[in-house]
Design goal:
The chain has one domain. Helix content is about 70%, strand content about 5%. It has ten helices and two strands, in the order ααββαααααααα. The chain has helices at about 5-20, 20-40, 55-85, 90-95, 100-130, 140-160, 170-185, 195-200, 205-215, 230-250; strands spanning about 45-50, 55. It has a two-stranded antiparallel sheet with strand order 1-2. Helix 6 runs parallel beside helix 10.
């Protein structure tokens, strides 16, 4: 079988594993929708100022929530899932099979990207149908932003496993790192660029992912193509750094006590 065929088959196995746990899959998609209903209802009709663009809260929140869903499906899911598999000895056993390590990683990443795409479509469609938000102005830019964001946060999820000592600690460590950055990056409400928290958030890829998605949706019609090169480069740089770190330090076996 060709290398591409092995990778595609592994993506299929990972997708079967994901959908065979219906409770986990259900809440993976329900979680962003719950956030959407709560915040979009609370702030429905309110106007927000994003740079020079004045728009409704919902038009700001949907792109941010799309980014949040992608980050959850990639960063959170991969870091916690791989930590659990490592502690259960699954990764160690995989090393003794004919399956190449790169094919296994490709399967995990590919499956997460598929889930990310479904989440992005569902969130955007729900926002358009229920809350009448702005249809994405630049579909190519939105797709490219999701692709760069998904790959970058998959790499960051892989790298994050290095800092997780055991499976029990995985949810606390991952959420303890991820959620504070999510909040200060303006995921649920705009944070003025002059605010000290916003300046801190500029160092992390979350804020850049949200800004890039907002530019792709472009409710203020400020861009000719919807691409924000700086934000995409920052995310790509974080992803590249995470890949290097994961290659050097990723562990396939549980840490010895």
């Amino acid at each position: 079988m060709s290398s591409s065929g092995i990778a595609v088959r592994q993506v299929g196995f990972e997708q079967k594993s994901f959908w065979r746990n219906p409770a986990s899959a259900f809440f993976a998609f329900l979680f962003p929708i719950i956030f959407l209903v709560v915040f979009a209802t609370l702030f429905k009709g309110q106007m927000v100022q994003i740079g020079t663009v004045s728009t409704t809260y919902d038009n700001y929140y949907i792109p941010a929530l799309v980014a949040f869903g992608v980050m959850g499906a990639c960063f959170t899911n991969i870091s916690i899932t791989l930590s659990l598999r490592r502690d259960n000895g699954i990764l160690k056993r995989l090393r003794g099979t004919p399956l190449p390590p790169w094919a296994f990683i490709a399967g995990v990443v590919g499956s997460s990207i598929i889930v990310s795409i479904i989440l992005a479509v569902l969130t955007t469609g729900f926002g358009i149908l229920v809350y009448g938000v702005h249809v994405p102005e630049h579909f190519a830019a939105a797709a490219a932003t999701i692709a760069v964001g998904a790959l970058s946060f998959c790499a960051l999820g892989m790298a994050m496993t290095i800092a997780i000592p055991n499976a029990e600690a995985a949810p606390a460590i991952v959420n303890g790192v991820f959620l504070p950055i999510v909040f200060i990056s303006g995921t649920f409400f705009p944070v003025a660029s002059s605010n000290v928290l916003a300046k801190i958030a500029e160092w992390f890829p979350v804020r850049h992912f949200i800004d890039a998605m907002f530019m792709a949706f472009d409710p203020g019609h400020q861009s000719s193509n919807g691409f924000n090169g700086t934000d995409l480069l920052v995310m790509a740089a974080w992803g590249a750094g995470a890949v290097i770190l994961a290659v050097l330090r990723f562990r396939w076996e549980p840490r010895k006590s």
